[in-house]
Amino acid sequence: MELRRLREQKGMTAEEVAERLLVSQSKISRLENGRRSISQRDVRDLCGVYEVDDRRIVDSLMQMAKDSRQQGWWHAFGDIPYSVYIGLETDAASLRVYEPQIVPGLLQTRSYAQAVITGALPEAPAADIDKRVNVRTRRQDRINDAQKPLRLWAVIDEAALRRVVGSRELMVAQLEALLEQSHLPHVTVQVMPFEMGAHPGISGHYAILEFPDASDSSVVYIEGVTSDLYLEKPNDVQRYTVMYEHLRAQALGVEQSRRFIARMAKEHAESGPPALPGFNRA
User: Please, which domain of life does this record's source organism belong to (predicted)?
Assistant: First the structure.
């Protein structure tokens, strides 16, 4: 609040400050709204831009920044490659996600998450697998928060429902859990069937995060193998938002999607174990 007051006193917009410091406008907004941890360097740079001459004010803000560097819950698990995303997800009010290959992480059962992570990281030690599984299940607290649950909208490709992860028995349990979660008032699940052909999500997974404060710009998250991409420019966010609207329009409706998921669960239950050896990781 004090940083915002200093900026307004200087007669500068958040965009002007961002240009001076060569950072995104959303970073300035999040710093002012307390939705991003602030470093002493951030305070020093901002006070320099605002030409704050009173050393007592600068020292006070520097001390506040030092005291505020409290780590999020995920830091207790050690080094997590996507910790930036977890921080955004923790602060988000809503999340729109398209998943082409697997059930979204926030809707995964523990057994399914274990099988997914094990398959994706075949050379990772068991301890690392367990850590990632624990982080994934801990993230799901946002869905189960009775006071302020995350508003989740998920469009899931048919491939994710047909892919046998772990075992068919495990898939039945996962799809039944997904079906149950789809009835939560703050969770919407739609299925993108194969018959729809090419669609705006054909290039792969992405997520759009929106935040409670209107001054915080939305963020598009694209996961990579060695690095992730975060898009915050209004034009980029708008393009992905329009893409997602087309995805939702082309996907099956909510009730149709539930019937489709139930049918997939039934098919897995009736098919028995996969015919090829080595596929059952249960």
Answer: Bacteria
Quote the pTM value.
0.75
Per-residue pLDDT, averaged over 247-260, amounts to: 96
User: CB 38: neighbour CB atoms within 10 A?
Assistant: 20
Rounded (5°) CA angle 46-16-206: 95
Cβ contact 210:92 at 8 Å: yes
* H/E segment holding residue 119: helix 110-120
Burial (CB count within 10 angstroms: exposed 0-12, middle 13-18, buried 19+), residue 160: buried
Considering only CA atoms, which of 94, 210, 98, 103 is closest in space to residue 150?
Answer: 94
Q: What per-residue confidence (pLDDT) applies to 153?
A: 97
- In this prediction, residue 280 has a pLDDT band, given cuts at 50, 70 and 90, of very low
How far, CA to CA in Å, does 28 sit from each of 14, 21, 34, 198, 214? Answer: 6, 10, 10, 39, 13
Four-residue CA torsion sign, 261, 278, 82, 147: positive
CB 238 within 8 A of CB 218: no
Q: How many whole angstroms separate alpha carbon 101 and alpha carbon 124?
A: 21
The rounded distance, in Å, linking the Cα atoms of 134 and 89 is 16
| Spatial contact of 80 and 117, defined as CB atoms under 8 Å apart | no
Coil, helix or strand for 57? helix
How would you list the strands of the sheet with 206-210, edge to edge? 187-192, 151-157, 94-99, 206-210, 219-222, 229-231
The model's pLDDT over 146-158, given as tens digits with 9 standing for 90+, comes to: 888 999 999 999 9
Cβ contacts of 25 within 8 Å, gap of 6 or more = 14, 15, 18, 217, 232
Give the angle 201-217-141 at the CA atoms, nearest 5°.
Answer: 75
